[in-house]
Automatic annotation (TrEMBL):
Part of a complex composed of FtsB, FtsL and FtsQ. Essential cell division protein. May link together the upstream cell division proteins, which are predominantly cytoplasmic, with the downstream cell division proteins, which are predominantly periplasmic. It comes from Pseudoxanthomonas spadix (strain BD-a59). Keywords: Cell cycle, Cell division, Cell inner membrane, Cell membrane, Membrane, Transmembrane, Transmembrane helix. This is Cell division protein FtsL. Belongs to the FtsL family. It is a single-pass type II membrane protein. NCBIfam families: ftsL_broad (TIGR02209). Pfam families: FtsL (PF04999). The keyword Cell membrane applies.
Length: 87
């Protein structure tokens, strides 16, 4: 009876040890994945900021051009109207 109980305790101890090793391995794998995703998020945030700045710049020049056309009656010069002056 004591040998059976000892055998059960040893098997349970080994199973628990294997479970702990597996859990730590999973933790490490998920931690590496989390770090990778954090870096990717940071890179995407930087790119998003650049795109917002570019959009604001492009939108502003388009807005100025539209106001110049509508309110001031301005237009882009035709190629025949452009004169190149050379020194």
């Amino acid at each position: 009876m004591t040998r059976v109980l000892l055998f059960i305790v040893i098997v349970a101890n080994i199973a628990t040890a294997i479970g702990v090793v597996y859990a730590r391995h999973q933790h490490r794998v998920l931690f590496v994945q989390l770090n990778k995703l954090d870096r990717e998020r940071d890179e995407l945030n930087i790119e998003f900021g650049r795109l917002q700045l570019e959009q604001a710049t492009v939108g502003e020049s388009t807005r100025v051009e539209q106001i110049a056309r509508d309110r001031l009656g301005m237009k882009s010069p035709e190629s025949a109207d452009i004169v190149v002056i050379r020194p």
